Task: inverse folding
């Protein structure tokens, strides 16, 4: 690397920060730390259950907490790509699969809580609810859409499907997140502020994708047009 | 992120204006109170209520712990989370208080706080309480039948319904905004429902004055209906000719009807009402029609389609 006089310009600071962040993000230990961090919500829930501090309605608390974290993990997973590009941190992509799997993990806990503590593993009653109640229908859809994504989340499956097809399949996550937000919106009695907040974040993340997609389309058109101008 | 600085004073630390301007009287009253502790029942909640008799209308089921009854509340004026009312109602001023009774009555009346406790002899009634959200509790209320009050004001022949209204003050209840229902909270009963001996006006809980988060200083309790019918912190009762509007019905008419009797056979559009969770239990139990008070109240609804009149 060419020697360079330290210049305290913003660019220099950005470059050093980006470099430092890149190093941290490449570390094995950062991933281990992130993994443990993702388990904290579950740990806290377990601890508070053990301490009998889940309040008057523990089942409701467990259901709401796991549901909330499912949506959070979906939103965090969906922000990986925008953040990776905006911060110029390609190494962020290393965390996407883990975060997505945690969304599925908390979603499964949420579903199991309902099936076990609410429905008592009564599959007929469960199915009746899924068919009859639209907030459950759409919640179930959100979870079911995550199943193929969880299965095909490995590098082996990317190879087997081919990257283009794999990427296409994994766009299902947009619909899963949308279904999750609608599930929450339809569930609340009258105070829709939190579901709308989640919906707002999702809209922002989707707008970013739409924006970059339209931009890339127009640059491609320019690239095609350019030779003819010569 | 919002970084909020804690205010230097809490409202609870500020001497109320009227007390400050009458501080000599206040001090004198304090001295007098040392001699006679049980004089005023208007200043602090959590105070023991005296002369409370047991009622044969109580259930013998085990009451839900006090801590749960006071930390798991739907009282949207103080926020929509179950823990919000306990957290945000601490400074709620319930003294001075007036409750007006008016409308189609021969003798309209305004009750001040002391008068509210003297309308009729206080009884302890241990009732089942079933929320529309599928949870239930067993609550030892202290109060008196609403009919005792209604008889005093002498309803006219035009009075067919009773309309209730909660206290509302934006300044004291800043969390009410955005919760999705209109304030002041309003409720209503048919006159015969209001006159039923099970229908209570409640001023106490577990032998003490009603905590703010449970609807201090005075609230309604209708044990065979979903909890939201039991309106809190009453300031107005009107006897009227036509069926009055009710808060949750205004917010979602297809989900919450005027009658809202506990009924396992009639689903809420978004969930079944067949079961309930008796807090803090994890498992569910079957919900009983009219919350188990059918023997006493079913006759009020003979010939009515309860599916239509949900």
Result:
């Amino acid at each position: 690397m060419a020697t360079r006089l330290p210049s305290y310009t913003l660019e220099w600071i950005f470059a050093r920060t980006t470099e430092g962040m890149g190093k941290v993000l490449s570390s094995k230990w950062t991933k281990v730390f992130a993994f443990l961090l993702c388990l904290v919500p579950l740990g806290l829930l377990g601890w508070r259950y053990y301490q009998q501090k889940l309040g008057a309605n523990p089942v409701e608390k467990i259901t709401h907490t796991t549901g909330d974290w499912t949506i959070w993990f979906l939103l965090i997973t969906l922000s990986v790509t925008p953040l990776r590009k905006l911060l110029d941190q390609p190494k962020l992509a290393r965390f996407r699969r883990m975060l997505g799997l945690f969304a599925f993990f908390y979603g499964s806990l949420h579903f199991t809580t309902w099936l076990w503590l609410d429905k008592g593993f009564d599959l007929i009653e469960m199915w009746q609810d899924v068919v009859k109640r639209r907030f459950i229908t759409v919640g179930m859809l959100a979870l079911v859409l995550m199943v193929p994504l969880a299965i095909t989340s490995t590098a082996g499956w990317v190879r087997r499907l081919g990257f283009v097809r794999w990427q296409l399949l994994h766009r299902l996550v947009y619909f899963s997140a949308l279904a999750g937000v609608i599930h929450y919106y339809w569930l609340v009695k009258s105070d829709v502020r939190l579901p709308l907040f989640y919906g707002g974040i999702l809209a922002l993340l989707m707008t970013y994708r739409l924006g970059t997609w339209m931009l890339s389309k127009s640059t491609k058109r320019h690239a095609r047009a350019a030779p003819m101008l010569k | 992120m919002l970084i909020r600085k804690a205010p230097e004073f809490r409202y609870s630390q500020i001497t109320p204006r009227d007390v400050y301007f009458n501080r000599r009287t206040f001090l004198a009253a304090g001295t007098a109170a040392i001699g006679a502790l049980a004089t005023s029942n208007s200043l602090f909640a959590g105070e023991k209520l005296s002369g409370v008799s047991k009622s044969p209308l109580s259930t013998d089921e085990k009451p839900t712990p006090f801590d749960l009854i006071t930390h798991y509340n739907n009282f949207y004026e103080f926020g929509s989370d179950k823990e919000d009312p306990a957290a945000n109602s601490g400074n709620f001023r319930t003294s001075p208080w007036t409750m007006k009774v008016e409308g189609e009555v021969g003798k309209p009346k305004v009750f001040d706080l002391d008068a509210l406790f003297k309308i009729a002899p206080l009884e302890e009634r241990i009732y089942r309480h079933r929320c529309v959200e599928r949870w239930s509790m067993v609550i030892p209320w202290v109060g008196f039948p609403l009919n005792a009050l209604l008889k005093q004001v002498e309803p006219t022949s035009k009075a067919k319904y009773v309309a209730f209204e909660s206290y509302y003050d934006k300044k004291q209840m800043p969390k009410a905004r955005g919760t999705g229902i209109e304030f002041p909270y309003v409720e209503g009963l048919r006159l015969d429902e209001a006159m039923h001996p099970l229908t209570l006006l409640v001023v106490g809980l577990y032998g003490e004055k009603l905590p703010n988060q449970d609807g201090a200083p005075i609230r309604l309790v209708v044990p065979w209906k979903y909890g939201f019918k039991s309106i809190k912190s009453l300031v107005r009762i009107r006897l009227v000719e036509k069926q009055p509007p009710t808060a949750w019905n205004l917010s979602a008419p297809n989900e919450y009807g005027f009658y809202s009797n506990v009924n396992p056979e009639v689903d809420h559009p978004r969930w079944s009402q067949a079961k309930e969770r008796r807090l803090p239990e994890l498992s569910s139990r079957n919900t009983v029609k009219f919350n188990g008070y059918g023997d006493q109240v079913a006759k009020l609804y003979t010939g009515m389609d309860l599916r239509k009149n949900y």
